[in-house]
TrEMBL record:
It comes from Apertochrysa prasina. GO terms for cellular component: membrane. Signal peptide: none annotated. Belongs to the G-protein coupled receptor 1 family. Opsin subfamily. This is Long wavelength sensitive opsin. The keyword RNA-binding does not apply. It is a multi-pass membrane protein. It is found in: Membrane. Residues 64-326 form the G-protein coupled receptors family 1 profile domain. The chain crosses the membrane at residues 45-72, 84-102, 122-143, 163-185, 212-240, 274-296. Keywords: Chromophore, Disulfide bond, G-protein coupled receptor, Glycoprotein, Membrane, Photoreceptor protein, Receptor, Retinal protein, Sensory transduction, Transducer, Transmembrane, Transmembrane helix, Vision. One of its GO terms (biological process) is visual perception.
Length: 371
């Protein structure tokens, strides 16, 4: 099939020989897979809805994650080694939407990708990069929870140096993986509705297909299995601890044995639940996009332009969830947020328990005078 540019049009028509590719500029046509030439153009209303949705998500993410970075960086009690992971997660989410939503809004206005092949490739690479950094940062957070809760006093505490080493490792490995399509292992191409770009999951050669499969192991299955492993033992340790506390209280004929150490353990568990919530949201956000990629690789079902762009948009929306979870669930973050922006605090008084948001390390001397 010859890749030719179709006629321009101002109104959507549901009949004729027009396709979703008709508005693609000539310099982009070599990047468009033949699969998309079978679909009629999308109703312009869908482009408007997509543009509006990504704009709202982008603004919310940039503001929310920007505030997380600001609060964690300027609040002394939150500047702990483990909380560097939270800052890195917010940094990644911030730039995910900061780099993703303006080009997509602009292209939705034009109803096709008009920024050229190079920007398309960079756009897709950045989306993959920040998505990879986010999930591996969450994995590091889960491993930190495992270290603190499961190993307890025998755990080697995280230092600023070790936290920075983990963050650097996440960024270096992610950059390496997303660079491969620039060197011939797969490629970055326009998504189905031609207003965003991503990896090529429609090429029939196994060089391209193998990248999707191997990369999905690196950015999806490996971190997901590591997180499941960590939280399995975290839940097991919490259950065992709670059972032991109840049995001991029963023997001593008291209502509770909640000492300072027990309170700290309880705070650790609450923070682990919050971390688990963010990871669960990540799973639900990115799984549909993985299914779309695998459907393209294995040709298991017909992929429409509208399905691909909504899958991509849903995945990017994960960058919005985390600051909302922090605002609702993290007592120390709520306390610091309330001190600087009282009107933004969720209902209810934040619990000033002296715990850091991720590490859970208690520093009572910073928050309360000595008895």
């Amino acid at each position: 099939m010859a890749f030719v540019s179709g006629p321009s049009y101002s109104a959507w028509q549901g009949s004729g020989n027009m396709t979703v590719v008709d508005k693609v500029p000539p310099d982009m046509l070599h990047m468009v897979d033949a699969h998309w030439f079978q679909f009629p153009p999308m109703n312009p209303l869908w482009h408007s809805i997509l543009g509006f949705a990504i704009f709202c998500l982008g603004v919310t993410s940039v503001i929310g994650n920007g505030m997380v970075i600001f609060i964690f960086s300027t609040t002394k009690s939150l500047r702990t080694p483990s909380n560097l992971l939270v800052v890195n997660l917010a940094f990644s989410d911030f730039f995910m939407m900061f780099t993703m939503f303006p080009p997509m809004v602009y292209n939705c206005y034009h109803e096709t990708w008009v920024l050229g092949p190079l920007i398309c490739e960079i756009y897709a690479m950045l989306g993959s990069l920040f998505g990879s950094v986010s999930i591996w940062t969450m994995t590091m957070i889960a491993l930190d929870r495992y270290n603190v809760i499961v190993k307890g006093l025998s755990a080697k505490p995280m230092t600023n140096g070790s936290a920075m080493m983990r963050i650097m490792l996440v960024w270096v490995l992610s950059i390496v993986w997303v660079s491969f399509p620039f060197f011939g292992w797969n490629r970055y191409v326009p998504e189905g509705n031609m207003t965003a770009c991503g990896t090529d999951y429609l090429s029939k050669d196994w060089t391209s297909r193998s990248y999707i499969l191997v990369y999905s192991v690196f950015v999806y299955f490996a971190p997901l299995l590591t997180i499941i492993y960590s939280y399995f033992f975290i839940v097991q340790a919490v259950a065992a601890h709670e059972k032991s506390m109840r049995e001991q209280a029963k023997k001593m004929n008291v209502a509770s044995l909640r000492s300072s150490e027990a309170a700290n353990t309880s705070a650790e568990c609450k923070l682990a639940k919050v971390a688990l919530m963010t990871i669960t949201l990540w799973f639900f956000a990115w799984t549909p996009y993985l299914i779309i990629n695998y459907a393209g690789v294995f040709e298991s079902m017909t992929i429409s332009p509208l399905a691909t762009i909504w899958g991509s948009l849903f995945a990017k929306a994960n960058a919005v969830y985390n600051p909302i979870v922090y605002g609702i669930s993290h007592p120390k973050y709520r306390a610091a947020l309330g001190a600087r922006f009282p009107s933004l605090v969720c209902a209810g008084e934040p619990a000033d328990d002296g715990t850091s948001v991720v590490s859970g390390a208690t520093n009572v001397s910073e928050e309360k005078p000595a008895a």
